[in-house]
Specification:
Chain lengths: 271, 218
Amino acid sequence: MENQEITNIKLLITIGIFSTLFIAAVVILFVVYYQRKMLLKDASIKLMEQEKQLELFKATVAAEEQQKEKIARNLHDEINPLLNVLKYNLAKYRIRARKNTFDPESLITDEETLIKVMEGIRTTCLDLIPSFLLQNGLIPSLEEYINNVQKIGELNAEFESDTAPEKVEQFSTQEQLNIYRICLEILNNIFKHSRCTFFKMIVKTSESDLTINCIHNGKGVTNEEIENYTNASLGLGLKSLKARTLLLKASINYSKNINTSSVELIIPFKQ
Amino acid sequence: MNKDIFIQIISWASAIGTSIPLFLGVFRYRYLQNPLKWIVLLFGIGSLTELLSLIYATSINPNNVWIFNSYQILETTIIIIFYSMLTQVKLKKRLLYLFIILFTIVSVYQISNIGSARLNDLSFSIESIIVVLLTILNFHSILKKQVYTNILNAPIFWINSGFLIFYCGNLFLHIFSQYLQAHAINAFFELWVFHSIFNIILYILISIGFWKTKKSQI
């Protein structure tokens, strides 16, 4: 074989070796690069999730603070003045009793004041934990609420349920309270923003979950819209709603149509 | 430096270098997971083969190629077993065991055809293709599972990289080696230095792999 031919073959083999080696190096570098890229992506997703959770936690804490503020305001602005009046009256009666000019009939007004104080305290307590819910359970409480809405007469409200109470008893009192508050928040949003004239709540259960469907003829929203409102909103209602939904591992589906829109809350039973 | 001296140094480094990953493998043996123990065995057999071939060449017959041809079958078997232990899929494991049987049959047949004095390049080319495919599949599995926080700390990454570079680099050399041995033996010896260089790269990467081994990590 000629020298030139040998040199050509050697060159060809050397190029071949370096080409395959280059491909191997590219594969290895790609593995390192891709793995790092995926890790960074995972880390950023986790960070975003943590931020979201933190925001929800903050919203829950803020909602609780707001509730406490409301209770404090009730006690300070409504109960306290009434108690002051009673205290003033008692001092007045003590002086009159000493002078033997005390008229027991004057206690009637104070009795009324005392009833007002008791009413005020009861309302505040109801804000903390609805006693009707504790006594009668979730479904009758929701029915009672819808009946009250109907009695006001501004809109036509209906309630329908095929759910046995023992099914709902699978949820703890705290969970039932959370479901109740979610429903109240959903209803509050519907009444406030949808301008509906008809409303119907349907409660159903299956083997795996409890479904509460709120159908109305007002202006509806979609899941995307509600997500945007939740993220953009400065108010606590939607964020607190989301936090409670997460606690229950529940889901809420919003849908809107021309004639009827609905909000469907699905809460899974504990397995 | 004279070209011949350079080739001699590289050849010796390649022959002696096999003891480095072996030493590290033995040193870290108790931390090694079962698949990595097979790689230690591979380098143990590799070192013994180098020693045996040297003794054979100096005292019995300078042509010691049959030893390397026999070692190659063992080498392929161990590498395939190593990769079969990394997969959890039974079908893949069975397929890999089938490869071992087929490869052994082809290699024995080829050796009986070409005789004991020539390198079994066909088998080496087949081995290269199999191992390159296995390394790529293993990299794919690593990327899919995403179990490592830093892949550079994973022993399997370094071992895989070592095999990929070694077999990719040597593939072209072995495809043409039979032709070169027949027509230009000097050119063959000159180009064979690449084989020794890839051997050294393999030893370095495998050694890093063993060095990176910690408790319960592959």
